[in-house]
Amino acid sequence: MKADFYSLSRRELSAALENAGFEKFRAGQVFDAVYKNKIFSPRNFPSIPEKLKLWLEQNCEFSAGRLVVGKGASDDTKKFLFELNDGKFVECVLLEAPDDGGGVRKTLCVSTQVGCACGCRFCASGKNGFFRNLTSGEIVAQFLPFVKEERRGSKKARVFSFENVVVMGMGEPLMNTDNLLAALDVLNSPEKFAFGARRITVSTCGIADSIERIAKADFPYRLAISLHGATNETRSRIMPINAKFPLERLVAAAEAFAASNGRMITLEYILIKGVNDSPSDARELAKIAGRIGAHVNLIPYNPVEGLPWERSPARRRADFAEVLKRERVSFTLRREKGSEIDAACGQLALRTSAYNSDSSIGAP
Ligand code: SF4
Q1: Mean pLDDT score of the chain, rounded to an integer?
Q2: What residue ranges define each of the domains in the chain, with the CATH number in brackets?
Q3: What is the DSSP code string of 138-156?
Q4: Which residues contact 21 (CB under 8 A, 6 or more apart)?
Q5: At residue 312, does pLDDT exceed 70?
Q6: Best substitution site from 125, 176, 348 to test ligand 1's pocket, by max atoms within 8 Å of Cβ?
Q7: What pLDDT shows up at residue 355?
Q8: How far is the CA of 194 from the centre of ligand 1 (A)?
Q9: pTM of this structure
Q10: Nearest CA to ligand 1 atom 3
Protein backbone atom coordinates (compact mmCIF):
# COMPACT_ATOMS: atom_id res chain seq x y z
CA MET A 1 0.00 0.00 0.00
CA LYS A 2 1.26 3.49 -0.88
CA ALA A 3 2.13 5.97 1.88
CA ASP A 4 0.17 9.23 2.03
CA PHE A 5 2.88 11.66 0.90
CA TYR A 6 1.45 14.66 2.78
CA SER A 7 1.55 12.96 6.17
CA LEU A 8 5.30 12.34 5.87
CA SER A 9 7.59 14.80 7.63
CA ARG A 10 10.76 15.88 5.83
CA ARG A 11 12.74 13.67 8.21
CA GLU A 12 10.53 10.62 7.49
CA LEU A 13 10.81 11.15 3.74
CA SER A 14 14.54 11.56 4.02
CA ALA A 15 14.84 8.27 5.96
CA ALA A 16 12.61 6.46 3.43
CA LEU A 17 14.66 7.76 0.49
CA GLU A 18 17.94 6.80 2.14
CA ASN A 19 16.55 3.32 2.78
CA ALA A 20 15.69 3.03 -0.89
CA GLY A 21 19.22 4.01 -1.89
CA PHE A 22 18.69 7.69 -2.81
CA GLU A 23 20.79 10.63 -1.57
CA LYS A 24 19.52 12.26 1.61
CA PHE A 25 19.30 15.76 0.05
CA ARG A 26 16.66 14.56 -2.42
CA ALA A 27 14.02 14.86 0.33
CA GLY A 28 14.57 18.63 0.38
CA GLN A 29 14.17 18.83 -3.39
CA VAL A 30 10.93 16.84 -3.26
CA PHE A 31 9.57 18.94 -0.37
CA ASP A 32 10.39 22.14 -2.27
CA ALA A 33 8.68 20.83 -5.41
CA VAL A 34 5.49 20.01 -3.50
CA TYR A 35 5.20 22.62 -0.76
CA LYS A 36 7.06 25.57 -2.31
CA ASN A 37 6.36 25.18 -6.00
CA LYS A 38 3.06 23.35 -5.41
CA ILE A 39 3.61 20.65 -7.99
CA PHE A 40 1.61 17.60 -7.02
CA SER A 41 2.78 15.05 -9.57
CA PRO A 42 6.29 13.54 -9.33
CA ARG A 43 6.36 13.38 -13.15
CA ASN A 44 6.64 17.19 -13.19
CA PHE A 45 9.18 17.67 -10.39
CA PRO A 46 12.18 19.67 -11.62
CA SER A 47 15.78 18.39 -11.17
CA ILE A 48 14.71 14.95 -9.95
CA PRO A 49 16.17 11.82 -11.56
CA GLU A 50 13.79 9.60 -13.46
CA LYS A 51 14.46 6.70 -11.08
CA LEU A 52 13.34 8.74 -8.07
CA LYS A 53 10.22 9.98 -9.87
CA LEU A 54 9.31 6.36 -10.52
CA TRP A 55 9.98 5.39 -6.89
CA LEU A 56 7.79 8.23 -5.65
CA GLU A 57 4.96 7.26 -7.99
CA GLN A 58 5.13 3.64 -6.89
CA ASN A 59 5.44 4.28 -3.15
CA CYS A 60 3.58 7.52 -2.36
CA GLU A 61 0.01 8.71 -2.91
CA PHE A 62 0.01 12.32 -4.15
CA SER A 63 -3.71 12.75 -4.71
CA ALA A 64 -6.45 10.79 -3.01
CA GLY A 65 -9.18 12.05 -5.32
CA ARG A 66 -10.11 14.44 -8.10
CA LEU A 67 -12.60 17.19 -8.88
CA VAL A 68 -15.22 15.96 -11.29
CA VAL A 69 -18.11 18.44 -11.41
CA GLY A 70 -18.30 22.13 -10.68
CA LYS A 71 -21.62 23.90 -10.26
CA GLY A 72 -21.87 27.69 -10.17
CA ALA A 73 -24.48 30.00 -8.74
CA SER A 74 -25.24 33.58 -9.67
CA ASP A 75 -23.73 34.92 -6.46
CA ASP A 76 -20.28 33.45 -7.10
CA THR A 77 -20.69 30.38 -4.93
CA LYS A 78 -19.18 27.39 -6.71
CA LYS A 79 -19.83 23.87 -5.57
CA PHE A 80 -17.57 21.00 -6.65
CA LEU A 81 -18.00 17.27 -6.45
CA PHE A 82 -14.82 15.49 -5.46
CA GLU A 83 -14.40 11.83 -6.40
CA LEU A 84 -12.35 9.70 -4.00
CA ASN A 85 -10.25 6.79 -5.23
CA ASP A 86 -12.91 4.25 -4.10
CA GLY A 87 -15.54 5.97 -6.25
CA LYS A 88 -17.32 7.73 -3.35
CA PHE A 89 -18.13 11.44 -3.65
CA VAL A 90 -17.83 14.35 -1.25
CA GLU A 91 -18.10 18.02 -2.02
CA CYS A 92 -16.24 21.24 -1.59
CA VAL A 93 -17.46 24.78 -2.09
CA LEU A 94 -15.50 27.83 -3.20
CA LEU A 95 -17.20 31.03 -2.21
CA GLU A 96 -16.18 34.42 -3.55
CA ALA A 97 -17.19 37.65 -1.85
CA PRO A 98 -16.03 41.25 -2.03
CA ASP A 99 -13.46 42.23 0.57
CA ASP A 100 -12.93 45.61 2.22
CA GLY A 101 -10.25 46.68 -0.26
CA GLY A 102 -12.46 46.28 -3.36
CA GLY A 103 -10.98 42.86 -4.22
CA VAL A 104 -12.45 39.40 -3.96
CA ARG A 105 -11.92 37.10 -1.01
CA LYS A 106 -12.30 33.37 -1.52
CA THR A 107 -13.13 30.75 1.05
CA LEU A 108 -12.82 27.02 0.46
CA CYS A 109 -15.12 24.69 2.34
CA VAL A 110 -14.05 21.05 2.61
CA SER A 111 -15.62 17.76 3.73
CA THR A 112 -14.38 15.29 6.34
CA GLN A 113 -16.70 12.28 5.99
CA VAL A 114 -18.70 10.49 3.32
CA GLY A 115 -22.23 11.04 4.63
CA CYS A 116 -22.85 11.91 8.26
CA ALA A 117 -24.11 10.10 11.33
CA CYS A 118 -25.47 13.17 13.12
CA GLY A 119 -28.81 13.29 11.29
CA CYS A 120 -29.60 16.98 11.73
CA ARG A 121 -33.21 17.23 10.63
CA PHE A 122 -32.66 20.22 8.30
CA CYS A 123 -29.68 18.73 6.47
CA ALA A 124 -29.40 17.17 3.02
CA SER A 125 -26.07 15.43 3.77
CA GLY A 126 -27.36 13.70 6.88
CA LYS A 127 -30.41 12.20 5.15
CA ASN A 128 -28.60 9.12 3.81
CA GLY A 129 -26.57 8.31 6.92
CA PHE A 130 -22.87 7.71 7.42
CA PHE A 131 -20.55 5.78 5.07
CA ARG A 132 -16.98 6.38 6.25
CA ASN A 133 -14.40 8.86 7.52
CA LEU A 134 -12.09 10.54 5.05
CA THR A 135 -8.38 9.89 5.53
CA SER A 136 -6.16 12.89 6.19
CA GLY A 137 -4.84 12.50 2.60
CA GLU A 138 -8.40 12.73 1.26
CA ILE A 139 -9.01 15.92 3.23
CA VAL A 140 -5.72 17.41 1.98
CA ALA A 141 -6.52 16.35 -1.59
CA GLN A 142 -9.51 18.74 -1.61
CA PHE A 143 -7.16 21.74 -1.32
CA LEU A 144 -4.80 20.75 -4.13
CA PRO A 145 -6.93 21.56 -7.20
CA PHE A 146 -7.29 25.11 -5.90
CA VAL A 147 -3.79 26.20 -6.71
CA LYS A 148 -3.33 28.87 -9.34
CA GLU A 149 -0.36 30.38 -11.09
CA GLU A 150 0.36 34.03 -10.36
CA ARG A 151 2.85 36.40 -11.92
CA ARG A 152 5.05 38.07 -9.32
CA GLY A 153 7.32 40.59 -11.02
CA SER A 154 9.13 38.69 -13.74
CA LYS A 155 8.48 35.31 -12.10
CA LYS A 156 5.52 32.99 -11.92
CA ALA A 157 4.50 31.52 -8.56
CA ARG A 158 1.89 28.97 -7.63
CA VAL A 159 -0.38 30.08 -4.80
CA PHE A 160 -3.61 28.86 -3.26
CA SER A 161 -6.65 30.42 -4.88
CA PHE A 162 -8.42 30.82 -1.52
CA GLU A 163 -7.74 33.02 1.48
CA ASN A 164 -9.73 31.12 4.10
CA VAL A 165 -10.65 27.51 4.76
CA VAL A 166 -13.73 26.32 6.59
CA VAL A 167 -14.24 22.69 7.54
CA MET A 168 -18.01 22.45 7.26
CA GLY A 169 -18.69 20.36 4.19
CA MET A 170 -20.15 16.88 4.29
CA GLY A 171 -19.72 15.14 7.65
CA GLU A 172 -19.00 16.09 11.24
CA PRO A 173 -15.30 17.09 11.52
CA LEU A 174 -15.03 16.35 15.23
CA MET A 175 -16.17 12.76 14.67
CA ASN A 176 -13.04 12.34 12.54
CA THR A 177 -10.75 14.41 14.74
CA ASP A 178 -7.44 12.57 14.29
CA ASN A 179 -7.55 12.65 10.50
CA LEU A 180 -8.79 16.24 10.54
CA LEU A 181 -5.95 17.41 12.78
CA ALA A 182 -3.40 15.57 10.65
CA ALA A 183 -4.76 17.23 7.49
CA LEU A 184 -4.84 20.71 9.05
CA ASP A 185 -1.30 20.19 10.21
CA VAL A 186 -0.23 19.60 6.59
CA LEU A 187 -1.91 22.86 5.62
CA ASN A 188 -0.59 24.86 8.57
CA SER A 189 2.86 23.40 9.27
CA PRO A 190 5.74 25.81 8.46
CA GLU A 191 7.65 22.99 6.70
CA LYS A 192 4.61 22.16 4.55
CA PHE A 193 2.02 24.62 3.15
CA ALA A 194 2.39 27.19 5.98
CA PHE A 195 -1.24 28.36 5.61
CA GLY A 196 -2.18 30.56 8.59
CA ALA A 197 -4.10 28.86 11.42
CA ARG A 198 -6.27 31.92 11.94
CA ARG A 199 -7.59 31.53 8.42
CA ILE A 200 -8.87 28.04 9.17
CA THR A 201 -12.22 27.43 10.91
CA VAL A 202 -13.54 24.07 12.07
CA SER A 203 -17.31 23.85 12.39
CA THR A 204 -18.97 21.25 14.61
CA CYS A 205 -22.59 20.41 15.37
CA GLY A 206 -21.60 20.12 19.02
CA ILE A 207 -19.49 17.03 19.75
CA ALA A 208 -18.76 18.11 23.31
CA ASP A 209 -16.21 15.41 24.17
CA SER A 210 -14.12 16.33 21.12
CA ILE A 211 -14.38 20.04 22.00
CA GLU A 212 -13.12 19.13 25.50
CA ARG A 213 -10.26 17.25 23.86
CA ILE A 214 -9.18 20.08 21.53
CA ALA A 215 -9.51 22.54 24.43
CA LYS A 216 -6.66 20.63 26.08
CA ALA A 217 -4.62 20.11 22.89
CA ASP A 218 -2.60 22.41 20.69
CA PHE A 219 -5.47 23.59 18.46
CA PRO A 220 -4.56 26.94 16.88
CA TYR A 221 -7.61 27.09 14.58
CA ARG A 222 -10.92 28.88 14.97
CA LEU A 223 -14.00 27.00 16.14
CA ALA A 224 -17.61 27.41 15.07
CA ILE A 225 -20.50 25.58 16.73
CA SER A 226 -23.78 24.92 14.92
CA LEU A 227 -26.19 25.68 17.73
CA HIS A 228 -29.52 26.26 15.93
CA GLY A 229 -31.44 25.88 19.17
CA ALA A 230 -30.93 27.74 22.45
CA THR A 231 -32.96 25.38 24.65
CA ASN A 232 -32.66 21.61 24.91
CA GLU A 233 -36.26 21.24 23.75
CA THR A 234 -35.73 23.20 20.52
CA ARG A 235 -32.29 21.82 19.80
CA SER A 236 -33.39 18.20 20.31
CA ARG A 237 -36.23 18.74 17.85
CA ILE A 238 -33.85 19.48 14.99
CA MET A 239 -30.47 18.07 16.13
CA PRO A 240 -30.48 14.50 17.53
CA ILE A 241 -26.88 14.97 18.73
CA ASN A 242 -28.37 17.06 21.56
CA ALA A 243 -29.55 13.84 23.26
CA LYS A 244 -25.91 12.77 23.65
CA PHE A 245 -24.45 16.21 24.34
CA PRO A 246 -27.14 18.44 25.83
CA LEU A 247 -26.66 22.19 25.99
CA GLU A 248 -25.29 22.22 29.56
CA ARG A 249 -22.38 19.99 28.55
CA LEU A 250 -21.85 21.66 25.17
CA VAL A 251 -21.76 25.16 26.63
CA ALA A 252 -19.35 24.06 29.38
CA ALA A 253 -17.06 22.51 26.73
CA ALA A 254 -17.24 25.69 24.65
CA GLU A 255 -16.36 27.77 27.71
CA ALA A 256 -13.34 25.56 28.37
CA PHE A 257 -12.26 25.89 24.73
CA ALA A 258 -12.66 29.68 24.73
CA ALA A 259 -10.64 29.93 27.95
CA SER A 260 -7.77 27.81 26.64
CA ASN A 261 -7.71 28.81 22.98
CA GLY A 262 -8.32 32.54 23.51
CA ARG A 263 -10.19 32.96 20.22
CA MET A 264 -13.81 33.99 19.94
CA ILE A 265 -16.09 31.06 19.07
CA THR A 266 -18.78 31.56 16.43
CA LEU A 267 -22.26 30.22 17.15
CA GLU A 268 -24.09 29.40 13.94
CA TYR A 269 -27.83 29.75 14.13
CA ILE A 270 -30.11 28.91 11.19
CA LEU A 271 -33.44 30.72 11.56
CA ILE A 272 -36.29 28.29 10.84
CA LYS A 273 -39.87 29.51 10.80
CA GLY A 274 -41.80 28.62 13.94
CA VAL A 275 -39.01 26.40 15.28
CA ASN A 276 -36.29 28.60 16.74
CA ASP A 277 -37.04 32.17 15.64
CA SER A 278 -39.10 33.65 18.54
CA PRO A 279 -37.97 36.59 20.72
CA SER A 280 -37.73 34.14 23.63
CA ASP A 281 -35.34 31.94 21.57
CA ALA A 282 -33.28 35.07 20.91
CA ARG A 283 -33.07 35.83 24.64
CA GLU A 284 -31.91 32.27 25.41
CA LEU A 285 -29.35 32.49 22.61
CA ALA A 286 -28.10 35.81 24.01
CA LYS A 287 -27.54 34.14 27.41
CA ILE A 288 -25.43 31.35 25.86
CA ALA A 289 -23.43 33.74 23.66
CA GLY A 290 -22.78 35.94 26.70
CA ARG A 291 -21.55 32.99 28.74
CA ILE A 292 -19.11 31.84 26.05
CA GLY A 293 -18.25 35.33 24.82
CA ALA A 294 -19.21 34.14 21.31
CA HIS A 295 -20.11 35.87 18.06
CA VAL A 296 -23.47 34.77 16.64
CA ASN A 297 -23.95 34.14 12.93
CA LEU A 298 -27.67 34.28 12.06
CA ILE A 299 -28.51 32.48 8.82
CA PRO A 300 -31.83 32.49 6.96
CA TYR A 301 -32.78 28.84 6.36
CA ASN A 302 -32.50 27.55 2.78
CA PRO A 303 -35.37 25.10 2.23
CA VAL A 304 -34.26 21.59 1.26
CA GLU A 305 -36.47 19.51 -1.03
CA GLY A 306 -38.31 16.82 0.90
CA LEU A 307 -37.83 18.49 4.30
CA PRO A 308 -40.67 20.29 6.07
CA TRP A 309 -38.82 23.37 7.35
CA GLU A 310 -39.35 26.91 6.06
CA ARG A 311 -37.27 30.05 6.15
CA SER A 312 -38.11 32.45 8.98
CA PRO A 313 -39.84 35.55 7.48
CA ALA A 314 -37.80 38.75 7.11
CA ARG A 315 -39.75 40.63 9.81
CA ARG A 316 -39.21 37.86 12.32
CA ARG A 317 -35.51 37.65 11.51
CA ALA A 318 -35.17 41.39 12.04
CA ASP A 319 -37.02 41.15 15.40
CA PHE A 320 -34.74 38.29 16.44
CA ALA A 321 -31.68 40.37 15.54
CA GLU A 322 -33.10 43.33 17.45
CA VAL A 323 -33.22 41.25 20.66
CA LEU A 324 -29.56 40.27 20.22
CA LYS A 325 -28.66 43.90 19.63
CA ARG A 326 -30.47 44.94 22.80
CA GLU A 327 -28.65 42.22 24.74
CA ARG A 328 -25.36 43.54 23.32
CA VAL A 329 -24.48 40.29 21.58
CA SER A 330 -21.97 40.48 18.74
CA PHE A 331 -23.81 39.09 15.73
CA THR A 332 -24.06 38.98 11.96
CA LEU A 333 -27.28 38.48 10.01
CA ARG A 334 -26.48 36.81 6.71
CA ARG A 335 -28.10 37.73 3.47
CA GLU A 336 -29.44 34.80 1.46
CA LYS A 337 -26.57 33.58 -0.66
CA GLY A 338 -25.93 30.47 -2.73
CA SER A 339 -29.58 29.49 -2.56
CA GLU A 340 -29.47 28.04 -6.09
CA ILE A 341 -27.09 25.35 -4.93
CA ASP A 342 -28.40 22.13 -3.38
CA ALA A 343 -27.90 22.29 0.35
CA ALA A 344 -25.34 20.07 2.02
CA CYS A 345 -24.33 20.06 5.62
CA GLY A 346 -27.64 21.84 6.03
CA GLN A 347 -26.71 25.24 4.83
CA LEU A 348 -23.23 24.72 3.53
CA ALA A 349 -22.95 27.65 1.12
CA LEU A 350 -24.56 30.10 3.49
CA ARG A 351 -22.52 29.00 6.45
CA THR A 352 -19.36 29.21 4.38
CA SER A 353 -20.18 32.79 3.51
CA ALA A 354 -19.96 33.77 7.16
CA TYR A 355 -16.20 33.32 6.98
CA ASN A 356 -15.87 35.18 3.75
CA SER A 357 -17.81 38.41 3.92
CA ASP A 358 -18.33 41.29 6.27
CA SER A 359 -21.97 42.07 5.48
CA SER A 360 -23.85 42.52 8.71
CA ILE A 361 -26.65 44.60 10.09
CA GLY A 362 -25.37 45.08 13.57
CA ALA A 363 -22.76 44.17 16.10
CA PRO A 364 -22.04 46.25 19.16
S1 SF4 B 1 -25.58 19.58 9.36
FE2 SF4 B 1 -23.46 18.78 9.35
S3 SF4 B 1 -23.38 17.60 11.27
FE4 SF4 B 1 -25.54 17.88 10.83
S5 SF4 B 1 -26.15 16.05 9.65
FE6 SF4 B 1 -25.54 17.65 8.18
S7 SF4 B 1 -23.40 17.19 7.73
FE8 SF4 B 1 -23.90 16.17 9.65
Answers
A1: 89
A2: 3-61 (1.10.150.530), 65-353 (3.20.20.70)
A3: HHHHTTTT-EEEEEETTEE
A4: none
A5: yes
A6: 125
A7: 56
A8: 29
A9: 0.90
A10: 172
